[in-house]
Specification:
Chain lengths: 716, 324
């Protein structure tokens, strides 16, 4: 029997059903095949992140999710002692909540939506082998209850989950044992109606002497039921997953009052965790792999549903496009690999080394779990709540600047985009994870404040070769990311045991970023690295001066401002003056430098104010004052000059060398000095603005003129 | 100059090394007094200046020219910068017998001082032309990458010895290579000879690190005090350890298990060390060290400057019998 389909999708999990649905919607003849009959269950934590919820809604299955249990955020418990809550509420869109929805229902809803869209679903088709036409996959051989059946198609999509037979058959890679494994069970629990997912990291073995690369979860499903499970990221010789599960369940029985309940009554059910994504091994001629089949599971939290849906959508888009153009189908796999690789760059990563890299990050996340330093904050969020439960978007420096761009700014945007791509390309091989920083900011299409923006806007005043401009801008972004990394350095007590992973990471990261920056500089043929060096030299000197005056309540306003000017202004001046030199408008350098200096001061003062007035503001951002180390800010200095009880309280705090930021906030507020600082910040912003108004109008300078006020607009 | 300079056969190199000191001190200076003191600190403590010496040797006659001395100082500066940062990462309190920068001024200051020197070095190579600039940037990137790889592989008992050697080549070989390549570039040394020097640098880097590791193990075996085998505790396993683990013998399983433990007790460490000393891993590591030295010396046959070749061969040979 010979059947003809445009596309065969093997597996009707989230990845397969999403692919089939979108293909069918585009009028493509698609067979959705699964060996199981539906509804079928799947071993899973059933947790849907906000991004999954959004994707599901975009796929049109929103109504099916209505009675699922709503989730407000994630609580991460580290070593059973320290915990942190990450709220989804800060996400700035409609989907700022998660859901817990049993897979038996979720997967069936998706499958039915695919059928409704016109896909042909058949169960009882068990994948056996691929059919080939020369070097191209041309169909699938299934085993049915009765016989073997060969089905042909122009394109095959492998969505059969963590099973690896298809890897072997397609020769995409040798089917290795799965890198990880996870087990779950349902229980009844008195606290099943909570609205937080709970994740425990990492678990230990029974003797408590080995820390395992593992995690446990308690996901409230509503209706008195919780989904509990454990995952192990790699095989370890001294522990097995079922023991780990039993111990975790026993612990939760003690702590949470579990009792068997729900589907299976606590009976454990496990499945492999495939997080060994590699773009190159995700497609070959005639075959695209999606979801778990492509290894798309987070190596930090074991979540994979959103990636399954997203890769399914991408595969469908590529196939639709390629089927519409004659001959294009031959390149579909290349296009898919490229797009997938770009989308998930850094999230998961190719090759053997990946597991090691995650471990380094694990060490860092674990040992800096209590630290509020911005670099660790970002790292933590990128790993544990990747869709950015309030990640960068919460921070002021990440506010979108797009509205400030006048019409006709396309070249500027294009260059910024190139800088982003170059940044990712330069980090991706060796620090794949870091490229997320960039991608995270960009997926939204937002333009956030960074030196490349300042540089490229200033460069619109001159000419300069695009290539050089982009390289210089990339070098700047890399160098400033290095400063960001350095903000992770912490002082330590005199007794030092073991490794301080936080400090180690900060040093490695900063040096690495700078070395990359200089590779870009070395292409420039200008004295770019000298300019960077001189600016950093001043910034560092300012920083040392500031540290020398830590706890010094006698520090005067004038001296403090001089320190601020030394420490921060050069970092704002540098992109402006470097632009003048790379874009061949040296005569503009003095004006641009004045602009940058004034902008810098207004930025820093604004940051200080924000830190004091907005409790949600990241405690110690890079530009903000590091109160814990005794550094004074202008609001503090002004407050100390007043004859109020607030001033006395502040003085006492500094004299006893113990700053409670909340107390400090209140005391400064009581002194009533914030308005005068705000006035100063406004003064600097106005000065910067005027510099720009006096010179030639370009798209860039219009943007620059709007920037200072905008940077202050977030102040309450 | 220093007694360690004994390997150098070219008298001009000693002269160049004499000129290096003041140039280096000039390079670490800053108009900002607070930064200047910190930046000059490690440079003022002295050191073997092995990288500048290599640069001069590779350059050959004329190496006392100020331009060459500056280049040598830049390489040394990158090295010094990395020491500031290493001491933060290793939580080292002593450097060359004195308080480390981090012990003296804290981690944050040590961090930015090291970074400043690193930036300074890069900026200084700018004056040496595009090729030199590129070489400096690439070597620095490799150095950082090597350190990154090493940290990624912390606690990795499965790391194949070859991969470990690659990490070392990046970490230790990169600045040796930069020194030789810059020397060759400024001295007008031809392409084939520069390539020979590049090969030599890799072997020397490996030999340097391996002999260091062997010294560490032997030193620890002799003392077995509290602070022994800090590296092991930090999950950094040198070649002898990896060879032992890979040997497939019973002892390798025991050591692996010990290393997997959450916190190593002194007893754990002693047990592991005893197993290592009883195995053939140390002699095997010595063989690899000897092979690196040999291959390094072999690469030197291509050099026409015999005094340079002899000097570098001496340097390589000295790696076999290094003592503290
Ligand atoms: C215990 C556990 C807990 C997890 N918890 C979460 C969580 O809370 N949140 C989250 O987002 N992710 C979680 N994940 C990951 C998530 O389950 C997967 O990433 C997701 O199911 C991937 O979807 P998929 O469509 O690629 O594959 P699957 O959902 O596995 O679907 C594959 C389909 O292919 C079919 N199939 C398999 N073999 C064949 C064959 N030979 N022939 C025909 N059909 C076949 C199967 O029957 C199945 O229907 C968890 C994973 C595990 C193991």
């Amino acid at each position: 029997m010979k059947e003809g389909w445009d596309v065969i999708v093997i597996g009707a999990g989230p990845a397969g059903s999403a692919t089939a649905m979108l293909l069918a919607k585009a009028g493509i003849k698609v067979l959705l095949a699964d060996r199981k009959s539906f509804p079928r269950d799947k071993s899973c934590g059933d947790g849907l992140t906000p991004y999954s919820v959004r994707l599901l809604n975009e796929l049109g299955v929103g109504p099916a999710l209505e009675d699922a249990h709503r989730i407000k955020g994630v609580r991460v418990v580290m070593h059973g002692r320290r915990m942190r809550d990450f709220s989804y509420g800060a996400l700035g869109n409609d989907y700022n909540y998660g859901l817990v929805m049993p897979r038996v229902r979720l997967d069936d809803a998706l499958r039915q939506a695919a059928i409704a869209a016109g896909a042909h679903f058949e169960s009882g088709l068990d994948y056996q082998d691929l059919l080939w036409n020369e070097e191209r996959v041309a169909g699938v051989k299934f085993r049915t209850a009765a016989c073997m059946r060969s089905v042909h198609a122009s394109m095959v999509v492998g969505a059969n989950g963590a099973a690896t037979a298809i890897w072997r058959d397609s020769k995409l890679r040798s089917p290795k044992a799965s890198p990880g494994f996870a087990i779950r069970g349902y229980f009844s629990c008195p606290r099943a109606n909570r609205d937080m997912l709970a994740i425990a990291l990492p678990l230990t073995d029974s003797t408590n002497s080995y820390v395992l690369p593992s995690y446990g979860w308690v996901f409230p499903a509503g209706d008195g039921i919780v989904n509990i499970g454990v995952g192990l990221f790699e095989d370890v010789p001294y522990e097995n997953i079922s023991n780990l599960y039993s111990r975790f369940v026993a612990r939760m029985t003690r702590e949470e009052g579990l009792a068997p309940g729900g589907v299976g009554n606590g009976k454990p059910w496990g499945a492999p965790l495939r997080f060994d994504f590699s773009p190159d091994a995700s497609a070959c001629p005639g075959l695209l792999l999606v979801g778990d089949a492509a290894g798309l599971v987070s190596p930090f939290t074991g979540e994979g549903i959103s990636y399954a849906l997203e890769s399914g959508r991408l595969a469908a888009e590529v196939i639709v496009r390629c089927l519409a153009t004659s001959g294009a189908l031959y390149f579909a796999h290349e296009e898919y690999k490229f797009l997938l690789g770009h989308k998930f760059a850094g999230y998961f990563e190719a090759g053997q080394k990946s597991a090691r890299r995650y471990q380094l990050l694990w060490h860092v996340i674990e040992s800096t779990f209590d630290s509020e330093r911005p670099v660790y904050d970002v790292l933590r969020r990128l790993a544990l709540v990747p869709e950015g439960a309030g990640s960068l978007s919460q921070q002021k420096f990440a506010r979108d600047l797009t509205p400030l761009l006048p019409p006709g700014s396309l070249p500027l945007r294009r260059r910024l985009f190139k800088v982003g791509a170059r940044l990712v390309a330069s980090l991706r091989n060796d620090w794949p994870f870091l490229s997320r920083l960039e991608i995270e900011g960009r997926t939204s299409g937002a333009i956030v404040f960074r030196p490349s923006v300042l540089f490229l806007a200033c460069a619109t005043l001159g000419s300069g070769q695009e290539e050089k401009l982009v390289n210089a801008a990339t070098a700047l972004d890399l160098s400033y990311l290095a400063i960001f990394a350095q903000s992770g350095i912490e002082e330590e007590p005199a007794i030092r045991n073991g490794v301080n992973w936080g400090n180690k990471f900060s040093v490695l990261l900063s040096d690495f970023l700078l070395s990359r920056a200089f590779e870009f500089c070395s292409e420039l043929g200008r004295n770019a690295s000298s300019q960077i060096m001189i600016s950093f030299e001043s910034a560092y000197a300012g920083s040392i001066d500031q540290q020398n005056d830590a706890w010094n309540i006698g520090l005067g306003r004038r001296k403090h401002l001089a320190q601020l000017r030394r420490k921060y202004a050069p970092l704002f001046v540098l992109p402006c003056t470097l632009a003048a030199s790379v874009a061949h408008v040296s005569k503009m350098a003095p004006t641009l430098a004045r602009y940058g200096g004034a902008l810098g001061l207004s930025y820093v003062l604004t940051e200080d104010l924000q830190q004091l007035t907005d409790p949600g503001h990241v405690a110690s951002s890079v530009l903000g004052t590091d109160y814990a180390s005794g550094v004074l800010s202008l609001p503090v200095i002004e407050a100390l000059k007043t004859k109020t009880t607030g001033a006395k309280r502040i003085r006492d705090m500094y004299l006893s060398r113990a700053i409670d930021i909340e107390e400090l906030r209140k005391a400064i507020f009581d002194c009533g000095v914030l308005e005068s600082v705000r006035e100063m910040a406004r003064g600097y912003a106005g000065r910067a603005e005027r510099e720009m108004e006096m010179i030639t109008k370009t798209t860039g300078t219009t943007f620059l003129a709007r920037l200072p006020r905008h940077s202050m607009s977030g102040l309450n | 100059m220093s007694p360690e300079g004994g390997w150098i056969e070219n008298a001009e190199v000693y002269e160049a090394l004499e000129r290096l000191g003041p140039v280096l001190m000039d390079m670490v200076s800053s108009d900002h007094p607070s930064l200047a003191e910190r930046a000059a600190y490690l440079a003022s403590l002295g050191g073997k200046r092995i990288r500048p010496a290599m640069l001069f040797v590779a350059h050959g006659s004329g190496c006392t020219r100020i331009e060459v001395v500056r280049a040598a100082a830049s390489v040394e500066l990158i090295h010094l910068a990395s020491l500031y940062h290493d001491d933060i990462m290793d939580r080292g309190l002593l450097r060359r017998g004195f308080a480390s920068a981090n012990a003296k001024w804290g981690n944050a200051t040590a961090m930015l001082t090291g970074t400043f020197l690193f930036l300074r070095a890069q900026a200084l190579t700018e004056a040496l032309g595009p090729r030199a600039r590129k070489l400096a940037a690439t070597s620095a990137a490799e150095l950082c990458l090597g350190q990154l790889r090493e940290s990624e592989n912390a606690y990795n008992t499965e790391l194949p010895a070859e991969d470990h050697l690659e990490v070392i080549a990046l970490k230790t070989g990169s600045l040796f290579r930069l020194a030789l390549q810059l020397g060759a570039l400024l001295g007008g040394v031809g392409r084939a000879e520069t390539e020979a020097l590049t090969r030599y640098a890799r072997h020397l880097g490996l030999a340097f690190q391996l002999s260091d590791d062997l010294l560490d193990i032997e030193g620890d075996a002799a003392t077995t005090g509290k602070e022994t085998l800090a590296d092991i505790r930090a999950g950094v396993y040198s070649l002898p350890w990896l060879l032992l683990i890979r040997s497939g013998k019973e002892s390798s399983e025991i050591v692996k298990r010990i290393f997997a433990r959450n916190r190593l007790s002194d007893g754990d460490v002693r047990e592991a060390l005893t197993l290592l000393l009883c195995s053939d891993a140390i002699p095997r590591a010595r063989d690899i060290l000897a092979a690196q030295i040999r291959q390094g010396i072999d690469a030197l046959h291509f050099l026409s400057d015999r005094s340079a070749a002899n000097s570098l061969a001496n340097l390589a040979t000295s790696m076999a019998g290094r003592t503290r």
